[in-house]
Amino acid sequence: MKAEILCVGTEILLGDIVNTNAQFLAKELADLGICIYYQTVVGDNPDRLKEALKIAFSRADLVITTGGLGPTKDDLTKEVCAEFFNQKLEVNEESMNYIKEYFKSQNKNMVKSNEKQACFPKDSIILKNDCGTAPGCIIKDDNNTVMLFPGPPREMIHMFKNYAKPYLQKYQKDIFESKTLRICGIGESSVEDQIQDLIEGQTNPTIAPYAKNSEVTLRITARASSKKEAKDLIEPLKNEIYSRLAPFVYGEDDTCLEFEVAKMIINKNLTISTAESCTGGLIASKLINYPGISSVFNEGMVTYTNESKMKRLGVKKETLEKYGAVSEQTATEMAMGVAKNTKSNIGISVTGIAGPGGGSEQKPVGLVYIGICINGVTKVKQLNLKGDRNRIRNITAITALNFLRLECLNI
């Protein structure tokens, strides 16, 4: 089956909202083994919507729409789709009763315009909306199928997972299983270079690389007649990738770097404290996202000024005068100081220039030093980053956590 996602809404075209619906649907359809080659956005215009449907069905068997199911005059997706399939709309009593009860439960009056949300082609399949007033539906003929969903993501996601996905699964002939490997500390081009032969020789399973936020993911997908058979196909390829890319693979599937680092620290029974300057507590914030980190996280300090570095961390005045606040020497003393003063096994420090101002020819914007002190042994990593302030801060925090992960592997 080939599908196309057709999102309806002038607000999407104008950039007023981010089209997260298409992202969600694309991933869900891919997991079902449904091929997606095109995504389209069209405004609230019946002629253009009809043309978009015509084009979509020229290259897909299934079209999934979001938006345009509301009560207002410019909500015309259902009306246009019904016309496209030469079907007339009529009131669905079950949907009408649900909408009336919904308004009653909210202590609100139902207005006349809401009645159009209960109108559907006679032979369509109604998709209940448990989160709002606009039911979706499935309209089909001998060759084509369109599935209509409301625009609000909360409503659309619930409707798809609970009603549309089971419907689509009935038509699956094969099972698709995926495993995502999460990689940090090595760039996408280097990852691809090391597994190029695997990518070029892929058939089943397949490998899909993707880079985002200083990380790389490899999505391995297998097609088989059963879940077990698909997993068995994935396992040898996964193990081969691990053998080539270790220790850069830090986790699998829905995990994240800070969770893996936090679990590692807890499992190794190590305590940790942080001392941050340019990241302003971002590293500490990421670590405490993990439930249970309180058992090992002692203290997080934001030491922006030289005075705070000296007073809170014991950085020597001579070090600051001779080398400056942004230096390997200062990062070293910050990491040692925060570990010592908080009686922690691990002290991690960051000092740098996030910009946009404050840099010089000798120390440009993007120069960052990360210090890690583990049981008295200190190491420092220098970064020379490009980008705006937020990018520099975020990459620094991710790099610091991965630096810590790699140093803790052999403890």
UniProtKB/TrEMBL annotation:
Name the Pfam families for this protein: CinA (PF02464), CinA_KH (PF18146), MoCF_biosynth (PF00994)
Which residue numbers delimit the MoaB/Mog domain? 4-170
Q: Where does the signal sequence lie?
A: none
| Coiled-coil portions | none
Q: Per its UniProt entry, which superkingdom is the organism in?
A: Bacteria
Per its UniProt record, what InterPro entries does this chain match? CinA, CinA-like_C, CinA_C, CinA_KH, Competence-induced_CinA, MoaB/Mog-like_dom_sf, MoaB/Mog_dom
State the similarity comment.
Answer: Belongs to the CinA family.
UniProt name for this protein: Putative competence-damage inducible protein
Q: Which organism is it from?
A: Tepidibacter hydrothermalis
Its taxonomic placement starts with:
Bacteria, Bacillati, Bacillota, Clostridia, Peptostreptococcales
